[in-house]
Amino acid sequence: MPCPMATSPPRTERPLRRLWRHARPHRRAVLAASLCSILNRVFDLAPPFLIGMAVDVVVRREGSFLSELFGVDDLTRQLFLLGALNALIWLLESAFQYAYQVRWRTLAQTLQHEARLDAWRHVLRLELGWFEDRSTGGLMAVLNDDVNQLERFLDRGANDILQTLTTVLVIGAAFFVLAPSIAPLAFLPVPLIIWGSFRFQRRLEPRYAEVRARAGDLNASLANDLGGVATIKAFTAEEREVARIGAESLAYRAANGQAIRVSSAFVPLIRMAILVGFTATLVLGGWLTLEGDLEVGTYSVMVYVTQRLLWPLTRLGETFDLYQRAMASTRRIFELLDVEPAIRPGPRTLPEPVRGELAFEGVRFAYGPAEEGHQDVLRGLELAVPAGETHAVVGATGAGKSTLVKLLLRLYEVREGAVRLDGVDVRELDFASLRGAIGLVAQDVFLFHGTVRENVAYGRPDADDAALERAAELAEAREFIEALPDGWETIIGERGQKLSGGQRQRLALARAFLEDPPVLVLDEATSAVDNETEAAIQRSLERVAEGRTTLVIAHRLSTVRRAHRIHVLDAGEVVESGTHEELLALGGLYAALWQVQTGEAAA
Q1: Is the CB of residue 416 less than 8 Å from the CB of residue 362?
Q2: Distance CA 107, CA 276 (A)
Q3: Confidence at residue 144, expressed as pLDDT on a 0 to 100 scale
Q4: Which of 58, 225, 217, 197 is closest to 139 using CA atoms?
Q5: Could you give the percent of the chain with pLDDT greater than 90?
Q6: What is the mean pLDDT of residues 184-195?
Q7: What is the spatial distance between Cα 331 and Cα 153, in angstroms, rounded to a whole number?
Q8: Which residue segments constitute the domains of the chain, with CATH numbers given?
Q9: How far is residue 11's CA from residue 1's CA, in Å, rounded to a whole number?
Q10: Does 4 score more than 50 pLDDT?
């Protein structure tokens, strides 16, 4: 049966609803921030009412609303009371503004941090095959750009929506209390504005999904070019790559342009709707005031608050723009989190002490489903490595040598058969137990940007200086490490670019030796080094491999001639096994490979 690949189950749930469920631990913080936003807007709407009360005091004097409310007839005391109320309202408005900004921004940063870590943790749990069809830049767009879009909405958009809703409710209640006859006309544009906002939201949604997709493509191209700068320069392809990135950037710009055109049309159209409500209040309210049916102070309040009601609605376009960008990004984040790992850890741990006995029993494997035309790389492979011995696997390019390592580490899953460590199927083992028992030195050495010490101690961050120095000695790396400008604290650059290939390979050996694993695996570890480094690695292996199971995957046969047993792979099967001398005497494929590499006649 084909090896399953990670898949994303279809989701119909709206991203905002999923985000609310995802943020369950922070709901109290959301509610507290929301309360501060609402109270800030309530006190922000109070000054127009104070202005109306001031006009009422000037016009009606001792019979003003303030006088009736507080029983204060003296005009001076009424004005001082107004001043005190004004100061209190401004202080409370400012206090709640500070509170909601701190709470929303803190919440935005917290959720951004957690979303990024959750997504990254999930990505690291996915099997290696899942990454083959994804670009680094595309993943970076989700883990960075999309998470940042969510943070921007939580930082501003949520507060804007709450305060707009509060404005409509507070002013609506005031209107229907102060002037029931004018209130319906003043609120006439509101349903149209809300309807228009949702229409724009639906039109913006697919456009911003396209914007996020184009952003992922652009990031992928940039990341790919950054990784291949040396190749670009070697082929003088700088202008060609600029043109290619330019085309990707133009596609991103065009997708953004379509969204911007729709978004920008919102405010002018809403202004026309606002004109109806404001004109109705201005004209009809003025006529009622002249007729004596409406107090001058009340009319003043209505003129002020009509603008406070309707103008903030113009920001709905900007808010929905921010919302749609965030929801498009949120959907992409959850789509990533919905990917189910095809390879999961088993329930068992290796019995101690780990002996290191390896066995490949009838293993068949292909990098993809057979129905899609993927041919088997391994075809019923049988191979056994007794504990404590050094075995080598050799063969032509494409024979399936490196695939053995990936199956042993369970980076991929076998299609048929079993891979066993100390008699236990690796599919039954916990990842930490399985991979903790194996030290790997790969052909493509990956070193992190940081110090020599940090890279060597990557598998054992708590290792002391004595252990580090011993590992470096075993890898014959101590001499060049101490010759570096800052010794163990030298920054080696991204992927160790400040070091030579041989130096990087020796650091990788030291890193593996420091873990002191029961099983040591070298996957083409000498294929890209000079003869001096190869000789150093062979000397290191002779010392380290003693009493330890060592599996050497090699193309250069000179590396493996001293192995206890050499297995020759051809077309996914072991076709020859024996010592170096036995295989040369056999006169088969190994002897032919030896002759090609050395020019010597097969014995």
Answers
A1: yes
A2: 39
A3: 81
A4: 217
A5: 13
A6: 71
A7: 14
A8: 15-337 (1.20.1560.10), 354-437+519-529+546-603 (3.40.50.300), 446-516 (3.40.50.300)
A9: 27
A10: no
Handedness of CA 26, 27, 32, 33 (dihedral sign): positive
Is the pLDDT at 351 greater than 80? The verdict is yes
Task: Classify residue 307 by burial, with Cβ atoms within 10 Å: 0-12, 13-18, 19+.
Answer: middle
- Which residue type does 189 have? P
Q: Residue 46 corresponds to which amino acid?
A: A
* CB-facing half-sphere around the CA of 481: CA atoms within 13 A: 25
Instruction: Point out which residues pair with 551 in neighbouring strands.
Output: 391, 521
Q: What 3-state DSSP class applies to 340?
A: strand
DSSP annotation of 156 reads I
Distance CA 310, CA 303 (A): 11
How far is 200 from 266, CA to CA, in rounded Å? 7
Task: Name the H helices within 265-386.
Answer: 266-290, 296-310, 316-337
- How many CA atoms does the CB half-sphere of 84 hold within 13 Å? 7
Pairing of strands 438-441, 519-523: parallel
97 pLDDT more than 90: yes
Locus of tokens 């504990």: 387
pLDDT in tens, 213-230: 888 788 778 877 776 776
